[in-house]
Amino acid sequence: PVSELRSSNVMTVSGTATATGVLLVILLAAATVGWMTGPSSDGTSPSFPMLALGGMLVGFVCGLVVSFKPNLARILGPVYSVGMGFFLGVISKSFNNWQNGIVVQAIGATLAVFAVMLFLYKSRIIKVTERFRRIVIMATMGLMLFYAVSFVIGLFGAQAPFIRDASPLGIGFSLFAAGLAAMMLAVDFDLIERGAKEGWPKGMEWYGAFGLLTTLVWLYLEMLRLISKLNQR
């Protein structure tokens, strides 16, 4: 029937969930490799191994391209998962060498926030309006720009101290960043739901999955940083 043919050619929530699962499996596999090739323990501070820089750059480029070419998410999504997965594995190993057990804590916190945000969204306690979406996206873009500038000046030995410091300001900054990442999850849920309702092309499932995965990666990194600061108090 025509209705069945149409349903097989349009975006669905279940199809997006499947695509997200595929990207997560790839990311976890790459993270395992990154963990095994990560730095040995020094027990003093979390280092930023140059080995992870390549994976981060691959992920950044993929994210930039997909933001302008959503139809390429099906191809670049797995590439992003490999690059960022490796990056996460190396960085996680570095943090865990510094604070043993922090990775398990960060993963648990990320999953908890995801579950809470999904409940709040599905129960409509949080409503994603056009204004909400615009504020969250603009704030996210501003934060990413700040991180990019901080990374560049960090290459020359300078950095905003509150990004890493366990001071009240540093913890407050990490709480803000993690909260913003959580709000971005609601925006991702809304995009997936709208796409399914409006009958977007089937390939957009990968775009929805890509967006959700990038937010989860961001949230995990913010949780890793926040917990490391709290552990220093």
Summarize the structure.
This protein has 233 residues and is mainly α. It is 77% helix and 0% strand.
Specify the oligomeric state: single chain
Total number of β-strand segments?
0
Helix residue percentage:
over 70%
Mean pLDDT: 89
SSE string, helices as H and strands as E:
HHHHHHHH
Write the layout of secondary structure elements.
Elements: H1 2-7, H2 13-36, H3 51-68, H4 73-98, H5 102-122, H6 130-154, H7 168-198, H8 204-231
Helix pairs in contact: 2-4, 2-8, 3-4, 4-8, 5-7, 5-8, 6-7, 7-8
Give structural notes:
Helices cover 77% and strands 0% of the residues. By secondary structure, the chain is mainly alpha-helical. Helix 3 packs antiparallel against helix 4, helix 5 packs across helix 7 and helix 5 packs across helix 8. The N terminus is likely disordered.
Q: Which descriptors apply to this entry?
A:
single chain, 233 residues, mainly alpha, 8 helices, disordered N terminus
